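User: Working on a comparison across species. This one is FtsX-like permease family protein from Flavobacterium piscinae. Can you predict its structure so I can line it up against the others?
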Amino acid sequence: MLLYLRLLKESFNFAMNALRNNKLRTFLSLLGVTIGIFSIIAVLAAVDSLDQKIKGDLGDLDKNTVYLLRFPFGPTEVPSWKREQFPNVTYEEFDYLKRSLNGVDKIAFNLFTRNENIKFEDRTVSSVRVTPTTNEFEGIDGIKIEQGRFFNESESNSGTGVIILGFEVCNGLFDSPEQAIGKKVRLYGQRFNVIGVTQKQGFSTFGDSRDNAVFIPMNFIRKLYGENNDMLTPAILIKPEKGIDMEGFKGEITQKLRNFRGLKSSDIDNFFINVLSGFTDMIDEVVSELNIVGWIISGFSLLVGGFGIANIMFVSVKERTNLIGIQKSLGAKNKFILFQFLFEAVILSVIGGIIGLVMVWLIAMVLSKVLDFEFVLSFWNMMLGAGLAGVIGLIAGIIPAISASKLDPVEAIRSGM
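Assistant: Here's the predicted structure for FtsX-like permease family protein from Flavobacterium piscinae:
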């Protein structure tokens, strides 16, 4: 054990001498490993951060939540020209499913519409995402209220002019969430009473975050514009009870909606049942593919880095041929010489890897502050980077180390004279 510790110490000293005595050559050799480790860990950290952000954005949603619309969330065998003929879901269908569908925890009716400007006195916030919905939406979307409350069933059914502001919308109109409650804001040329402000969500991976949205009773918009309006796209959101058989649940939705619409047995479904779990599975596949692509691209950088380490080790063997001969003449075994150069190669490679990790860490810190997006450099990724650097050094140093261990001591001393 003491022998290996001494070997490690001597190899570390040799590696440091190589760095000190041949700074440019060593730097250029280590650059490949540094870039390779930086590339791999940067890609893994970015993908992990994106994955964590997506899961955080969807964390409040039940993965079995159903989105019932006239179009699908993903690929479908129904041609686009046929999908364009499908009718929108209606409030009557929502009301029918709410009364007759079994196994429902919560069901809401949403209207997707264009962004609007919202005003309070002389202040205006532009391009605000308006979400007309029913009161059940709060329990499906997992909206967290910072101040005030969400609108209740009575306000929802009657289409009362009340509004919940997103965090950033509130900041643009008022000095504080507390100040916003009870004030009147203008939207669609109408006055709305502010009854709530949502908690800050931050950057969202799915476009506009909840911070830049407002929520109003859906029936207010129905009374104002009616349902047959091109700027409105209705959707029925259904959160099933825990532990329900999703295939059976989807089958019941299909049967009831087909019956309500009077579809014949030969007619295809003219609606789409989009389940959130299918969407998250698709995201997991994309994240996995991004990881694979990152590994492939970064692998080339590591390959170049390995050649750089091998090059510097061959040079080290050449420069220290005389010293190797003296060590062998004094009784050093081939294994001692082999491990000496292997350790040196690994140490040099790990140094390059650590530089790459530090670069990723610094960039992650800067981007997290600038972009309002938390980049995560996990302990596992750091260990993976250091481990990869060590493996690259081991592979790159094995041939130079073997060639050094097999040198004839007499010839080695003579070549250095």
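For your comparison, note: The chain has two domains: 2-57+282-415, 87-270.

User: Helpful, thanks.
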